[in-house]
Every structure is written in C-alpha cells, then in structure tokens.
Write a structure and sequence with these properties.
Blueprint (H helix, E strand, L loop, with lengths): L9 E4 L2 E11 L2 E6 L6 E5 L4 E3 L4 E3 L4 E3 H14 L11
Antiparallel strand pairs: 1-2, 1-5, 2-3, 3-4, 6-7
Length: 91
C-alpha cells in the first residue's frame, strides 16, 4: 500500500478476514474497503465487532503498549540497522 493511512482509519472486523479501511458511516453501520488487491467495499452492520488499530494495545513486561508505538519502535530499529528476529531463531 503506497498511500499513508492513519491507524484510526484501519480496522479488523469480526467475521470478515483481513484489514479494512473505514471509508464512511451509515445509519446502520460503517462502510469499509478491503486493503487487499480487490479493494472490495461493503457495509458492516452495527452488531459486528470492529477493532480500530489505534485502539489496540499489546501487553509488555510492565504495561500495555499501543500498536502505533510498537510499529514506530520497529521502524526505528529497522532504520538503525538492528535486526529483529523471530523467537524461533533465538536458542
């Protein structure tokens, strides 16, 4: 994806695979567009659970860390040349 998108515009929707961009709101729910090549648009009813990425946090050793901060830390490490290993590589 070449365009810059805010985490508050991206959501995971229960019952629908993948990530989606929130493109609008309707009386009965929200309008989303898939982030894959198909760019399929659909309406999601209010009874579906919608998790906006800006509201997701990960539990760390001492506190919850927002997903945006996790992504920013990964970006900084990649720019500095540090290598991030998957746990399976660590013995």
């Amino acid at each position: 994806m070449s365009e810059k998108v805010k985490l508050s515009e991206i959501a995971a929707v229960s019952g629908i695979g993948g990530l989606h961009k929130i493109i609008g709101r309707t009386r009965g729910g929200i309008l989303i567009e898939s982030l894959n090549e198909a760019r399929k648009k659909q309406q999601v009813p209010l009874n579906n659970k919608v998790s906006v990425l800006s509201e997701i946090a990960m539990f760390s050793i001492s506190e919850d860390v927002r997903l945006g901060i996790v992504f920013e830390n990964i970006r900084k490490q990649e720019e500095s040349g540090l290598i991030i290993f998957n746990k399976s590589f660590i013995t």
